[in-house]
Amino acid sequence: MIITMKEEGTRFGVRAGAIIYNEDRTKVLLENQGRFYRFPGGRIDVHEDSQKAIERELKEELNLRADLKLKYIVEMFLNSMRIKYHEIGFYFIMQINEDSILNKSKSLDGDSDFEWILISDLDNYNIIAKPIKEKVISNEICNDDLEHFIYREY
């Protein structure tokens, strides 16, 4: 059972995501969800910690095992046309060989496409986790310190 709550006009969720860099840190892997992109990952299940959740998601979607480091805890308050969305996200960073995941590869379940995107082109992509996108673009992910921040659209 995933940690998600819904009420009329609002939704709350808890997510674990991965900022996956290629070997020379010029690209990141994104999941194409049609109208928007997101960093690979997914919802955390009840009784599951964030580390286990991201490991599970990466194994299920990409058959990927890698060394992960928790970098960001983000509280996002997003405003869409239909709902106000509150998400608590745990974002891990990692680096892999780009050839281990082919560009525009399908997830193992076939539900998603994953693409390597040049960091210099990220401004052209509608990424849900806007504060993480900005950190990647500005190259602020340069140390191992855990950071917590709040991002509000409403």
Helix-strand layout with pairing:
Layout: E1 4-7, E2 10-21, E3 27-32, E4 37-38, E5 41-43, H1 50-62, E6 69-79, E7 84-95, E8 105-106, E9 113-118, H2 130-137, E10 147-152
Parallel strand pairs: 2-7, 6-10
Antiparallel strand pairs: 1-2, 2-5, 3-4, 3-9, 6-7, 8-9
Structure characterization notes:
The protein is mainly beta and 154 residues long. The chain has a single domain (4-152), classed as Nucleoside Triphosphate Pyrophosphohydrolase (Alpha-Beta Complex), CATH 3.90.79. 14% of the residues lie in helices and 42% in strands. It is built from two helices and ten strands. The protein has helices spanning 50-62, 130-137, and strands at residues 4-7, 10-21, 27-32, 37-38, 41-43, 69-79, 84-95, 105-106, 113-118, 147-152. The strands form two sheets. Strands 1, 2, 5, 6, 7 and 10 form a six-stranded mixed sheet that branches. It has a four-stranded antiparallel sheet with strand order 4-3-9-8, with no helix packed on it. A hairpin with a 4-residue loop joins strand 6 (69-79) and strand 7. It is globular and about 45 Å long. The mean pLDDT is 92.
